[in-house]
Structures are given as C-alpha cells and as structure tokens.
Amino acid sequence: MPKVGMQPVRRRQLIDATIETIHQHGFADTTIARISKAAGMSSGIISHYFGGKNALLQETMRSLMKDLRDDYMVRLVTAKTPMDRLEAIINTNFNEEQFTPQVTVAWLSFWAQVPFSDQLRRLNNIYFQRLASNLRHELRQLTTEECADEISSAIAAMVDGIWVRTGLSRGQADIAGARKMVLGTLRLYLANSPSPAKCPKKHAKK
Predict the structure, then answer these.
(1) How many CA atoms lie less than 13 Å away from 66 in the CB half-sphere?
(2) Of the four, 14, 41, 137, 200, which is 20 to 30 A from 75 by CA?
(3) Of 67, 126, 57, nearest in space to 93 by CA
C-alpha cells in the first residue's frame, strides 16, 4: 500500500518528469516509458494517478498555470499601487522557477498542440484571458479604458513572444533582460497615454 500523503508528491514528480522529458525529447517523443523512467517509477503509475498520457500532459499544463497564479498571489501581498501590481504581473511571468529552458520548451510544445486539443485549447484560453484581465484591471486605473485595452494586448503579446523566442533558442533564459524589456515598454506606453481624469465621462442613456 502506498504511504499516506505520497500521492501529491508522486504526482508532482511525474509532472516534473514530463517537463524534463519534453525538454529532452520533444513533445511527440514524450512517451509514458520515458516519463516513468525520468521519474524513477513504473509505467503503470501514470495510469494510476492520471489515467493516461494525455491526462498527464493536460495536468502538467494546468500545474504550470497554477504555479504562475500562486507566484502572482504572493507578489500581490506587497504590491500597493496599480504600477506595483503591473510589475508583479510581469515579474511573475518571468520568475526564476518558470522562466527556465525546460519550462519554456514545455509551454512552446503545449502551444503547438493547442489547435489539435480541445482540453489544451480550453486551458490556454484561461491563461490568455487571465493575463489580459489582470493587465487591464490595473491599467484602467492609470489610463483611459481604450488605452488600457490597447496596452494590455500589446504587453500580453510581448510576454508570450519572449517566451516563444526563448523556447526556440534553447538557450539560457535572460530573466532580467525580459523583465527590463517588458517593463520599459509598459512605462513608455503609459508615459504617452492620457490619465483616467482626462477621459470624458460617458453619460448613461435615458
């Protein structure tokens, strides 16, 4: 019988092994045998905990999203202003635990499969919507609603673009450089955008 409390540990080990296997062999050649070998477990344990390879791959993407969310919530504790919270969003997307060669390749592999998987597409939509919503919420306190929508779209695309370029380069992720680039662009946008006070108020229709 498995020890009490071992299920979360083993699930985490299998998810970490999946990320490493994708990094080493690519998505197409990430097999149950290779994942279980990397985790130091039997192949049957994947079916036991996840029900199969596809479910494990989905859970791996879900886990990466949860890691981002958890890191963001921790950073929010000390973020007092809208700009602080915008910096927290950017720093979360380029943190030391996630912005690694292994994780960037995993994300790139998942994105490549999104058009062919309803489950991965659903998870990816949640990720896109969450990032855009968080950016817009803070930006609307610093500029007009129209500018906030424009800036949030540009910054979200920039974040994803840097992730894609990093995943394709297979080199060491430049965390400081990524943060500096995105935050610098964000500040330039805001410096050239009107404040909310200058936005004409919309009158309700009678």
Answers:
(1) 8
(2) 14
(3) 67
Give dist(CA 6, CA 3) in Å, integer. Answer: 6
Per-residue pLDDT of 69-99, as tens digits, reads 999 999 999 999 999 999 999 999 999 988 9
Residue 20 one-letter amino acid: E
38 close to 21: Cβ distance less than 8 angstroms: yes
Residue 187: how many CB atoms within 10 A of its CB?
12
pTM of the full structure: 0.86
pLDDT for 51-68, tens place per residue?
A: 888 899 999 999 999 999
Contact 14, 35 (CB under 8 A): yes
Cα(50)–Cα(11) distance, integer angstroms: 8
